[in-house]
Amino acid sequence: MGTVTSTATSAMPTPLLHASPAVGFEQPFEMLEACHERVKRSLDLLQRLGAHLDAYGADTQAAAAARDVLRYFDIAGPLHHEDEERHVLPRLRASGHGALAERLQADHTALSAAWQEWRTVLEGVCAGRWDIRAAGRVRAGWREFETRYEAHIAIEEAVAFPSAAHGLPADTLAAMGHEMASRRRSPPQPATTPGTPA
């Protein structure tokens, strides 16, 4: 029996992943860093979900956590990557940091591709499915996904954001924040997951 469906329960509180950060879009680079904190919380929830699945299977708490992770990486994650591709990477290229910009763009592509595999597993969890035969591979993949994201975030915060923000006038920062906010007024909808209303 490779797939476990469990009705056992355990305390696995999920963080409020979609609360508005303390900073606003009038501070766009601070907003990008606040989004990184939400990425980290979502990645932490993914790891805790893996441990919960090993102990309890795909119960209702696991399904709720899986839906939270899906919502973040289906909606907010792509918007965040687009922020960087519109406003950070072009400034890096223009300021002589082209190699860094290409590395970060490649990271986005690789992370997005990895997410497509893991979202399929999470959709299964939402439907009460967890294949214990694949658990080791999946959890190792989730750890690698987290490690890659953390390395990506670290170079952005240490080098990319300071370089891109250097010397930007207030009106340019305001326009950047306005564009970021405008795209979020009608964010893309996530793919429908089993047990989730369309």
From TrEMBL:
InterPro entries given in the database record: Hemerythrin-like
Taxonomic superkingdom: Bacteria
Protein name as it appears in the record: Hemerythrin-like domain-containing protein
Organism of derivation: Methylibium petroleiphilum (strain ATCC BAA-1232 / LMG 22953 / PM1)
Stored Pfam families: Hemerythrin
Regions of compositional bias (Pro residues) in chain numbering: 187-198
Region called Disordered, residue ranges: 178-198
Hemerythrin-like domain location: 28-162
